[in-house]
Amino acid sequence: MHNHSLFEFVGQFSSELFELACRIENQLLDQPLASLIQARLYTEQLVKVISKEEGFEDIYPLKHSERIHKLYRQNVVEEDIYLKLEWIRKKGNKAAHDIKEVSITDVLQVHKFLFEISVWYMQVYVSYDFEAPIYKQPIKTAQETINPLGAKELDVLIKPYVDQTLQKMDDMWIEVQRQLEAIKEEAKLVQTEAATSEAISLQQSEIAATAEKETLASSQVNPQMTSLEWIFAKNNFKLTKQTKKATEFEHMKNGEVLYLMAYKEISIVLNPKIVENNQSFNGGKESHSTALTRFPKKIKNGKTPTSYGYAYKFKTEEELGAFLKSLDDILI
């Protein structure tokens, strides 16, 4: 039975993952060992979906741990999500190879982490304006077990995980933290090397960019453009970058950037600095996504800041064109 499942929204992007989430919920407290193993399988399947959407599987298939690490290195997932994915992976691996009794606090924390990871995926890849349900501990499931746990007893069990910071949870979490620090050090080295290379080629890049702007300005209508791309070009926005999650456009006269999100509805995200300093842009909704790479960051949930902007939806291409025309007039 899936009535009133906390993970009901997962069915909007995967019926298989929804079924798996329901099985985990139903057996969470009476079969904790199996729950940890299945939780690892849930995150493995979800991470595989993300990896394919980001184009990481095109060359050769990756292992689960490799996918998680690569997603973090490429700024697809923020630190908070990375830590939760790694913690579940390690707990699931341990459960699969160790038949010792599993701590109830572990499965309760896994349940909460699965919920938070699923909400993150929903908001980043499915719908930026998704309103997550309020998280609830699986008390009803606990009351149906052979040794029922009351709400008060369950609160006592979960309290250490709520009160403590994530770094202090257990030895395994400390291990994940060390792993994260190693990745950060590696990233710093790569960034230093990249900065040196970028400084050498900066002047050439600026010359090439200027030539590209002049070329596009003189011939905005490209027969290979989609109808949406043509609308952007007609309003002085050139396509500069495209990913699975968003298409980046840059204004050809002042360099201002906006993003066309890869949703079913037409949705663009503007730089918060423009919106917050201009009363003309009322009605935008704050949206966080790792795809907004050239926008400022701030903390929404969790511990690490993510790129954000203000999103606007349009029912038709005509509405989008009118909005971009007014935006172009302001930017000029």
Automatic annotation (TrEMBL):
Residues 27-114 form the DUF4145 domain. InterPro entries: DUF4145. It comes from the Bacteria. It holds the Pfam family DUF4145. This is DUF4145 domain-containing protein. It comes from Peribacillus butanolivorans.
